[in-house]
Amino acid sequence: MTDHDADRLVLFHTPGTCSRVTMNALEEIGLAFEDRPIDIFKGAQRRPDYLAINPKGKVPALLVGDVLLTETPAIVAWLVARHPEAALMPGGDALERARAFADLVWCSNTLHPLVRTIRMPQRMTTGDPDPVRAAAIAQITPELDTMQQRFAAADWWYGDRWSILDVYLAWITGMCVGAGVEMAGYDALLAHMGRVRARPGFQRALAREQHALDSAGIVLPGGRL
Prior knowledge:
Number of domains: 2
Distance between the termini: 39 Å
Strand content: 5-15%
Mean pLDDT: 95
């Protein structure tokens, strides 16, 4: 197998979505990469030209040379393994690394589907979307409580050490805010989101996202990155 470290990197992404996590990881490492915006709000992820690249029809997708990586936890895991010096996630022994990977999967498999349902409940039912939204809010509330307790005790998920997981969790918080979830009592989550957004790596990624919006003419449903 070839060493893909030196291969060209192309990130297929949509500004404002979870592909922000991968973009932040690339910026934190300091890798050169091309970003190609995909307007999922107009269905570009289902067009034949994109499906030819990524048959899953999702973002993010990272092209490493001629090899495609999909799913945020897998992309981050590869970047962590290739660039341990960037300290994107905790190191340590195999068990500690597995526990950190479980946190990424928790974001991807539990929190992410819930905020997506809260934001777009009509996509999850052919009936009344209100009970679907209410159920998702009820399910995510204990998860937000856990996050609130954690960030009330420390600046970052892993204490005094930033990780790429913080970017994912800040995105979850932002999605809740944008979806109109009642955030009273979650001051530590909001403060954490502010710390994440203030990082230079995040600001570089945000500038890329804004340029992608402008160049591709993408209109965000919430109107804010």
